[in-house]
Amino acid sequence: MRFAGKTVVITGAASGIGKASVLRFASEGATVIAGDIDEKGGQELADASGGKVLFQRCDVTNVADIKALMDFAASHTGGIDTVFNNAGAGGDRAGIDEIEAEGWDFTMNLLLRSVAMGMRYAIPHMKGRRGASFVNTASIAALGAGYSPTAYAVAKMGVLHLSKVAAADLAKHNIRCNAICPGFIKTNIFTSAMEVPAEAKQMATAMIFEVAENAQPVKGGGNPEDIASMAAYLASDEARFITGTHFIVDGGITIGPRHSWDENDTGLFGAIEALAGPGAE
Ligand code: NAP
Asked: What per-residue string of b and e applies to 96-112 under the rule 16 or more CB within 10 Å gives b?
């Protein structure tokens, strides 16, 4: 019960990482204020919680919605202890050679401005609360090319840097701030991002989850609960000495190219050895 008596706001709360985190924080005693654009999913979560979860519709591309979510949390519970700025989607998929300003701006507002404003409008309700902190969802896409579309990757890198410099701003209020870089986590984000039609969603999801099983050194793939565990740790007093940094939770997908950890993938060196023939040095 690390969060007994605490108020935790979570965005993107109706699905995937957000939903797993709502359940985790609530199970450890928090009152959770859940925000999402998915009203049906969010309300179902609240209805099933026995009063531990309150839902409010919040589109994080709309700054007024973000402020209203934070004010709602504070007016219902008296203040905010933790905000998990987590909502997100794939954003504009075009490369830098094709993307239009509108798609770029939308993606930045969805993934980066949302986090900045989530902090901006929660801070007045967090000052003076013991152990207050932010946890922001970035991505391994922030660490290099090839994990996501371009605009998404740039926005997530922004989340990492924002989490660092905001931690400096927030030191005077004794509020910590950290980010998480999830790897390949089995959620609906991929079918949503690829705009898979409803009738094909179930099959596409099963295929994507199968790929996720062996996409990294740790077998079985990443689950939303793996990220919820890190979010709960970072928000807890156990992480009281941690601020302005990020944690990669990816089953090792970023440790190196596939051939470095997969014995069935010979990679470039394997190809060279095969060319050189047996016994070559
Ligand atoms: P998810 O299962 O699709 O959950 C995201 C939730 O956010 C959904 O309920 C979605 O609603 C909601 N949402 C989308 N746009 C929103 C908006 N404008 N305002 C408020 N809510 C919005 O995806 P997830 O994988 O859990 O994603 C959570 C976070 O993790 C995102 O920031 C994502 O970028 C990040 N992440 C995920 C992975 C991964 O492999 N899954 C890896 C790295 C980072 P709808 O379903 O109606 O769209």
From this structure: eeebeeebbeebbbbbb
